[in-house]
Amino acid sequence: MALDPHLVRALHISSEDRQGAARDPAAAHHLFQASTIAALMDARYDGDMTVAEVLAHGDLGLGTLAGLDGELVIVDGVARVARVDGSLSPVPPSTTTPFAVVTSFAPGPPVALGALAHDALLERLDALAPGPVCAVRVDGAFTRLRLRSVPRQSLPYPPLGEVVQQQAEWEAGPIHAVLVGFRFPSEAAGLEVPGWHLHAAATDGSTGGHVLVADLAEGHVRMDVADEVHVELPPGVDLTAADAAMREGIRRAETRPDAG
Ligand SMILES: [Zn+2]
User: Fold this and answer.
1) Euclidean distance between CA atoms 230 and 109, whole angstroms
2) 237 located within any domain
3) Does 249 have pLDDT greater than 60?
């Protein structure tokens, strides 16, 4: 893979027995990831890691659930799932995930943000980002959120490119919400969603989802640089799919022209 040298140094890919791993499961400034976005693109929707195991590696993050059953959003160590009806509900710890990214969020000081439409918000996040790979949390009042989720899939699983054709999109706002997510460089496509990947949870718990548009009225952002990325590959998943998916243009399915 044509990976950025900085990222290669930071990247640890493992398919070893997780119980035998000697690393600190939740060290500061480490990202932990279950599987790869390319495996997800390739319809690997079941995974073998539970949400409880993911939460042992961090308290802020995002992902999906087995069978692609909604959008996983993890805030303050609480995992919830946004489904196609726009609801946000707690995830039983034994639920498995085929793809998740988490970190033990250890941010720098909060930075106040004024009114920023979606693209301007992402530009501001880029300007504030402490490194090429980072975690972010935005708490604020939003004039508009456009969110999406995907319906649970049944076997035989169609590829993600087909599933997103069935995705549900809806709008909320004005609304108070938390956005959580990560930024990865474009060189990481295949392993990760390049650019900003954000999931939202309304402060009142009324809705959440994968963020397509977030127009901020006012709020504050906190960021945490990641100096190590640990990718745990499920049995049967290797990096071949990540490499292939990179070439096939992963952005088409996971991001949209209006999503950034
Ligand atoms: Zn997402």
Assistant:
1) 25
2) yes
3) no
Query: In this predicted structure, which of 53-57, 62-66, 149-153, 187-191 has the lowest mean pLDDT?
Result: 187-191
pLDDT beyond 90 at 19: no
Q: How far from 203 is each of 88, 141, 142, 207, 232, CA to CA, in Å?
A: 11, 10, 11, 9, 31
User: Is 97 among the domain residues?
Assistant: yes
The count of structural domains within the chain is: 1
Q: What is the mean pLDDT of the chain?
A: 86
Rounded to the nearest whole angstrom, what is the distance from the C-alpha of residue 212 to the centroid of ligand 1?
9
User: Residue 243: inside a domain, yes or no?
Assistant: yes
Torsion from C-alpha of 77, 191, 7, 28, nearest 10 degrees = 10
In a domain, 260, yes or no: no
- Output the CA 210–ligand 1 centroid distance in Å: 4
Q: What is the pLDDT of residues 111-135, one digit of tens each?
A: 999 999 999 999 999 999 998 899 9
Rg (CA), the chain: 17
Taking the centre of ligand 1 as the mean of its atom positions, its distance from the CA of residue 7, in whole angstroms, is 21
Burial class (CB in 10 A: 0-12, 13-18, 19+), 131: middle
**pTM (2 decimals)?**
0.87
Q: Quick check: 148 and 191 in contact, CB under 8 A? A: no
Interval between CA 62 and ligand 1 midpoint (Å): 7
Which phi and psi (to 5°) does residue 71 adopt?
-105, 120
